[in-house]
Amino acid sequence: MLLEVLNSVFSVQIFLFIILGVFTGICIGSLPGLTATMGVALVLPLTFGMEATPGILLLIGVYVGAIYGGSISAILLRTPGTPAAAATVLDGYEFSKRGESGRAMGISTVSSFIGGVVSVLALWLISPQLAKLALRFSAPEFFLLAVFGLSIIASISGNSLAKGVLCGGLGISLSFIGIDGITGYPRFTFNNINLLSGMSFIPVMIGLFAMSQAFSTVENIFTPDQVTQKISKVWPSKKDWKIILKTAPLSGAIGTMIGIVPGAGAEIGAFVSYSQAKRSSRHPELFGTGIPEGISAPEAGNNGVTGGALIPMLTMGVPGDAVAAILIGALTVQGLQPGPLLFTEHTTLVYSIFLGMFVANVTMLVLGLSSLKLFVKVLSVPKAILTPMIFVLCVVGSYAINTNFFDVGVMLFFGILGYFLQKADVSVSPAVLGLILGPMAESNFRRALLMSEGSYSIFVASPIAWVFVVLTLVTLLGPAVKERLKKH
Amino acid sequence: MKKILVLVMLLSLVLGSVFAQGSTEATADSYPSGPVSVIVPYSAGGGTDLVARALVDAAKANFPKNIAVENRTGGGGAVGMSYGANAKADGSVITMITVELVTLPHTGTGAGLYYDQFKPIMLVNSAYSAITVQKNSPYNTLNEFLAAAKTKTMRVGNSGVGAIWHLAAAGLAKTAKVNFNHIPFDGAAPAITSLLGGHIDAVTVSYAEVASQVDAGNLKVLAVLAPERIAATPNIPTAKELGYDVAIGTWRGLGVPKATPQPIVDKIEKIFTEASKSDAFVKFMNSSNNIIDVMDSTSYGAKLAKDNDMFKALIEELGLKQQ
Fold this sequence. Notes:
heterodimer, A: 488 residues, mainly alpha, 19 helices, B: 323 residues, alpha/beta, D-Maltodextrin-Binding Protein, domain 2, 3-stranded parallel beta sheet, 11 strands, 40% helix
């Protein structure tokens, strides 16, 4: 069987498809407004006419590439190319400001690779055991996971916790807009059809991060750049390697676990990894000022999700995230039904996917490192030319996601809001986190109470629930306790 | 400054002429005289999207000036369908209309959408609700399940409040005179996952959506809410056979704006009816567990009117109407 697997993956055709997939993915991921999910969905019809193995590996290549590609624009332009890279902006852009974007992207590429490899190993070695975890999650566990996620606001608030909490609250309030998922009541929609499905996440994110940044660049658009980008070295230095090796494997493992949980995707994996790295760091105050850990953790975390999301999909036919749901469709069209039978009836295919995914991660590393110098050149374009191009990208990106012009207005609104928030020294990441996790917390809280017919004991009825209660308390109270202990 | 002004004017001239191209008068003989877009009111990669893309792919040869699928999402389908209903009535915009066209207006979230804004072209496929429980559930027939529901509150998962599978569960409960505890999820997949984990008692999503888990021996289907047995699963009884006269399902079809000239409508119907019989489309539909259910424009129009009345009554009775 091993030979069969090696044969089916190590052919020129499959290699070409993986390279093509990863390359397409990196391009799609680095463009704001085109997400990993969209990229995979757009490539999907191409696989209908292909055989199962190359088809699935092409899609997985796009997935892996896109999750990594999002970090490129996050670091260079303060524009997360995909939601998964929203946490990378925090430290990544600080590097570019100092002229070290080459170093930042080197760290991001290597960390993404490590995170991806960790998740592939988990997928290969222990997926049947881990898969059972996905089924243990029900509404109360999802709610507590979301609350734990929200507690991360404490880690990403920048220098003022109060501002961070306010901004997180803003994000959660924004998530109230639209048809309420439990009773079907339209909230804050002002009879506008475009608000029925709520604030579209991508335009809000593009506005808050990219548009606001472009606005502030306009202030001094004709003054030449003070910073020249050092791009000579993209391979991380010895010192950086030490930090990466300390951070990335653990973050990759965290990402893998988040990936297994159905409905929790790469963006949550990145934020949780970032928060964990900060909490366990000896110098948490340096996070957000541009340190290697601040890139390594979220990037390993979001690529860790890629393998994790496939675990429940391949073993049980349950999608770990939106991309995995599309992959299920792709497999079904091939006449294959993901689930327990896939492992026994199509062993070669399953192991080809494992090996192919590993190859995809290696491809990502090679493509990433070899093209970094090219990407960094973007920053040597004069601001007066680059900034209008960013404006165009912002408009096109927010339109493309739903082909709805209303979203462009949303993006502009949040661009202006983000600009003033930046002036007031407020970090916008908590708003993004609130917008992602708000609906997850709310609907699962109410769904849990529906299931238990009103009894609150459902929230402490399972061991997983307790794990999240404890994790949340540690995140919130940990720093204060540490401080106390230091004093005595 | 002047330069920029000139540039802007030139640009608008160029863009203007590009957009002006499509305005030539369309007739049946010359149709399609320009590029055609097919509006899918749901996101790329979803069930409706895949069916639309497969159908468009099969019909591609008839559109020399290109045909493309366009996803316009939002409002549970209302955004895309409203866009399609208000598009130019010359056949250049065809819309994938779904059952939500006759449910959203009654839940009060259709934003002015109504089925008579469309001229129906054809029904493409349909899927009926399958009452599904865990494999080791104590209930082996629909009757046992419903009898137990009289004494115990069954937690029945659906794909969203007011969505078609919620209406299916509610319709069954109404016919069988029981009460379910309806648990809405964000789509069918999370509901099925929850059932697999044993957190709820049943789901009422389509057979296609549970098929892989049924084949793997994790779930079992007690009955389908279909007018007759599904060809792929001749062993599963319909609720009607068991004495509960209820058939609720989703469907997908094609529609164009009401004012579209009849000759063009006929031409589109002819093209897509042929496409729906093509080997590639049939193969795709079979392998993806979708049931082809083609109806011509007249009978599809009648179905629209009938379903509209049925869902109106059901939604009002359930108190799902908002505002």
